[in-house]
Specification:
Blueprint lengths: L8 E5 L3 H12 L2 E6 L13 E7 L4 E5 L14 E4 L4 H12 L3 E8 L5 E6 L5 E6 L4
Parallel strand pairs: 1-4, 5-8
Antiparallel strand pairs: 2-3, 3-4, 6-7, 7-8
InterPro entries: Glyas_Bleomycin-R_OHBP_Dase, Glyas_Fos-R_dOase_dom
Pfam families: Glyoxalase
Protein name: VOC family protein
């Protein structure tokens, strides 16, 4: 039995799950698996809508297309943090990729306390906090 567990972020998209999860796979790499409503025998949405998708890799996310009448992604007061989770060059590249078509809230730059960090809301509405400590 594991001693720690990290929650897997599961997102309900407004009909854009295939595009969004593909975008995150392009940014972070990993293996993307998508299953359609039709594959899962669901009739509460378009047959080609995503009933379940998982990005398995260094950054793991899951999600689906919200069925009609179900809420879709909308966050307030939530940041997905990638502080110190990879080498600075990788974190810089992720920040830049997430910024494409999104909103750069706070550039990824050195801060007065010595670390570098920044915040971006990507084009699918997820807000990210990315940063790292100074290199020795």
């Amino acid at each position: 039995m594991p001693t720690t567990a990290a929650p897997l972020v599961y997102l309900s998209f407004p009909g854009t799950a295939r595009e969004a999860l593909g975008f995150y796979a392009d940014v972070f790499g990993g293996e993307l698996t998508l299953h359609s409503y039709e594959e899962f025998g669901r009739t509460d949405g378009p047959p080609d809508a995503v009933a379940h998708g998982v990005l398995d890799g260094v950054v793991a996310l899951a999600g689906s297309d919200a069925a009609p009448g179900e809420p879709a992604v909308r966050f307030q007061g939530l940041l997905l943090s990638l502080l110190g989770t990879a080498a600075p060059a990788v974190l810089d590249a992720w920040f830049d990729a997430l910024s494409v078509g999104g909103t750069n809230i706070d550039p990824l730059t050195p801060k007065p306390w010595g670390a570098s960090d920044g915040q971006v809301t990507d084009r699918h509405g997820l807000r990210w906090l990315i940063g790292y400590e100074p290199q020795a």
